[in-house]
Amino acid sequence: MIMKSFLLSVLVILSACQNKANDKIVIGNFGSLTGAEATFGISTKQGIELAIEEWNKAGGVLGKQIELKAYDNQGKPEEARLSVEKLINVDNVVAVLGEVASTRSLAAAPVAQQYKVPMISPSSTNPLVTQKGDYIFRVCFIDPFQGEVMAKFAFNSLKLKKGAILRDSKSDYSMGLANYFIKTFEALGGTIVADEKFVSGDVDFKAQLTSIKNKSPEFIFVPGYYTEVGLIARQAREAGVKVPLMGGDGWDSDKLTEIGGAAVEGSYFSNHYTVEDPRPEVQNFIANYKTKFGTMPDALAASGYDAARVLLEAIKRANSIEGQKLRDSIAATKDFQGATGIITINEQRDATKSAVVLKVVGKAFKFVESVKP
Ligand code: PHE
Hints:
Elements: H1 2-22, E1 24-31, H2 38-57, E2 65-72, H3 77-89, E3 96-97, H4 102-115, E4 119-121, E5 136-138, H5 143-157, E6 162-168, H6 172-188, E7 191-198, H7 206-214, E8 219-221, H8 226-238, E9 245-247, H9 255-260, E10 268-271, H10 280-293, H11 299-318, H12 323-331, E11 336-338, E12 341-343, E13 355-361, E14 364-371
Parallel strand pairs: 1-2, 1-3, 3-4, 4-5, 6-7, 6-8, 8-9, 9-10
Antiparallel strand pairs: 10-13, 11-12, 13-14
Helix pairs in contact: 2-11, 3-4, 5-6, 11-12
Bound molecules: phenylalanine.
């Protein structure tokens, strides 16, 4: 008798769990919520949360409320891989959103591909990410384009002919972006006089900066993340290097000026969006984000928001959460009005969209120009 009622309550609990799982649509997110690049993960997750909240208020998707399950990978590629395993096998998510850093997206993508669960990276720009398989997407542009944008900007707009590179040998993003930059810059007729390397987590860049200084470049291209770029800028100025610094989207965080101070003033970088964009999709997003989180959204927040909305729209269009149908629906995304621009997913599962060039002025990133793909 006791055994029977025990079994019955187990069954009741089990089916309650089942029902609970079934009356919600669960979406996964994995990112660096702690560690050196914590602003990447936190901003992205907040952007996703805002998108989900807006959809839930409007009735959810396929008649169900949407739930977010997020894991912190502390900025470690292996943890990123494990997070996706867990999201798929334990939490039964319908899709995963992440990562920011290309190295971590590259580590996690094979898992999503293996289980045929769609993955959308909000902001990983290394071309190899979506080549991991036909279930892997991104809502951002890729580094061959971003490198070309900055090389043309240096050569044509700033009229600089002699550049130096300082890149992170442990980052797929940094290594790739530097290569694409060099390719275009040299094709235009420019010369790269120094190509120095560091490793993520380094704090002393004096040796590299001294050899760069000895070659007298007119600018230094530093395709890294804000963490190291801020320190590099400071040490460059201390070493008497006065030329402009340039970089890519990895610079984007309000921590850049916090770490770099006056040393990053006047530098340029390419990015996914600008807060100065007057389109209502951008201004409404900024206003709602500020109300919810009390801070200005950076490009990561905007990309997270867009990735989540592209996914939810795709679920709605597919009228299904089944892997293959959802995959096909994401692949069919066309002219989606995002905060980071108008998103069309191409044959390679990348987004074809514009980039902006920004200039660091005080604590702000001022819009300089927009470049179409
Ligand atoms: N694009 C970077 C990468 O692929 C990540 C990044 C995107 C960082 C946007 C900051 C802002 O690694």
